């Protein structure tokens, strides 16, 4: 079977040239180069400049194509070879992730499942902060590239504040907040793996773990207890997954169904002049219009989506504050 990868190679080359110029100007070293730009080549290509050199994360997107196992393997190999050739890299610089053919919510579930391979921990840099990524162990790498600007926003707002990071994953928002001068922070995630990854990211950036704590817990249960305990924060990042059904939490989390109650729970522990940033990656997401009746809401997605994700509707981000400072009467 011959596979014509020329259209893919041409687009990739064009993207890579444009984005390399932008990245140099912007001081960005890890970025997305290609995201299903040509429907016949449904893959995502991310470039990471690591302490061990350039690595490419190539992810196949499941479009439900009906290929035999052999055709599928040959197709993936042809794409990988074209990629290595265009980017001038050895094939060993590539990590190729083939999607398992599963139904939609099973795929979402699989996003956070281990691959069974330990992989290599690699060091990357972003805006002077250091992060551990692992391109092999899981479907995701440890650093969501689409939130680069949002992380910067949180870092720039954090000085002197008490920061809360919910659904924190590897704690990258907390690293920005702590390095941006937050006086304290709490980082909450349900997964032991990601909490210890966050701890390693903190250590890597010289963050004081006595002031910046990491809590392994269900964010929903944690929010209830925090409210009962009278906890207050000045800055909150709420970035839940689209869907989660871990055995360690009660019920399931569905961001479309549950976002209003999550936002209200955050607003209940936010200081009157505090800020909540709420984001999610569900493409079909629509914000419950009633939220704007209770709180001040601004959709800031146009500001938080970076050049390498332009036109992709990769996430939506909202800045939510109290209406006339009335949310927190205790402040
Ligand atoms: C989409 S990632 C969040 C991305 C993160 N905010 C970032 O930008 O790096 C989802 C995270 O939510 C965590 N998670 C899923 N269900 C949870 C729950 N009920 N409570 C706390 N964390 C949860 C997962 O372990 C995973 O780390």
Task: Flag low-confidence runs.
Answer: 102-113, 327-331
Question: How far apart lie the N and C ends?
Answer: 69 Å
- Which percent bin holds the helix content? 25-40%
Radius of gyration: 20 Å
- Counting DSSP E segments of at least 2 residues, the number of strands comes to 15
What order do the helices and strands follow? HEEEHEHEEHEHEHEHEEEHEHEHE
CATH topology of the largest domain: Rossmann fold
Q: Give the strand line-up of the largest sheet.
A: 9-8-7-10-13-15-14
- Using the coordinates above, name the CATH class of the largest domain: Alpha Beta
Describe this structure in words.
With 331 residues, the protein is of the alpha/beta class. It folds into two domains: 6-101, RNA methyltransferase domain (HRMD) like (Transcription Regulator spoIIAA); 145-322, Rossmann fold (3-Layer(aba) Sandwich). The protein is built from ten helices and 15 strands. It has helices spanning 6-26, 69-87, 104-110, 148-157, 172-179, 192-204, 219-228, 255-267, 291-294, 301-304, and strands spanning 30-35, 43-50, 53-60, 94-97, 122-126, 129-133, 162-166, 184-189, 212-216, 233-238, 243-244, 253-254, 270-280, 295-299, 316-322. A seven-stranded mixed β-sheet has the order 9-8-7-10-13-15-14, sandwiched between helices. A four-stranded mixed β-sheet has the order 1-2-3-4. The protein is globular and about 65 Å long. The site of S-adenosylmethionine (SAM) has 22 residues, from β8 and α7.
């Amino acid at each position: 079977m011959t596979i014509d990868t020329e259209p893919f190679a041409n687009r990739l080359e064009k993207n890579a040239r444009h984005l390399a110029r932008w990245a140099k100007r912007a001081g960005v070293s890890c970025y997305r180069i290609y995201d299903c730009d040509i429907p016949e080549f449904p893959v995502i290509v991310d470039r990471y400049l690591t302490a061990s050199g350039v690595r490419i994360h190539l992810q196949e997107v499941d479009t439900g194509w009906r290929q035999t196992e052999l055709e599928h393997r040959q197709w993936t190999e042809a794409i990988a070879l074209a990629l290595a050739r265009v980017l001038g890299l050895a094939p060993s610089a590539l990590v190729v992730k083939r999607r398992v053919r599963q139904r939609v919510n099973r795929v979402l579930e699989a996003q956070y499942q281990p691959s069974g391979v330990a992989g290599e921990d690699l060091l990357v840099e972003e805006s002077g902060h250091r992060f551990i990524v692992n391109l092999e162990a899981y479907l995701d790498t440890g650093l969501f590239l689409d939130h680069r600007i949002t992380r910067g926003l949180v870092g720039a707002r954090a000085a002197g504040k008490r920061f809360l990071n919910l659904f924190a994953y590897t704690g990258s928002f907390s690293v920005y907040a702590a390095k941006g001068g937050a006086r304290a922070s709490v980082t909450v995630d349900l997964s032991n793996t990601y909490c210890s990854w966050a701890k390693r990211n903190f250590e890597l950036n010289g963050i004081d773990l006595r002031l910046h704590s990491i809590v392994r817990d269900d964010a929903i249960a944690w929010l209830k207890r925090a409210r009962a305990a009278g906890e207050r924060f000045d800055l909150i990042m709420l970035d839940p997954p689209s869907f989660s059904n871990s055995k360690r939490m009660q019920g399931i989390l569905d961001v479309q169904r549950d976002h209003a109650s999550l936002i209200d729970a955050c607003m209940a522990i936010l200081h009157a002049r505090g800020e909540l940033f709420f984001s999610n990656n569900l493409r079909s997401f629509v914000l419950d219009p009633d939220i704007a009746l209770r709180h001040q809401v601004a959709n800031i997605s146009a500001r938080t989506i970076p050049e390498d994700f332009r036109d992709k509707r990769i996430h939506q981000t909202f800045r939510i504050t109290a209406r006339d400072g009335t949310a927190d009467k205790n402040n």
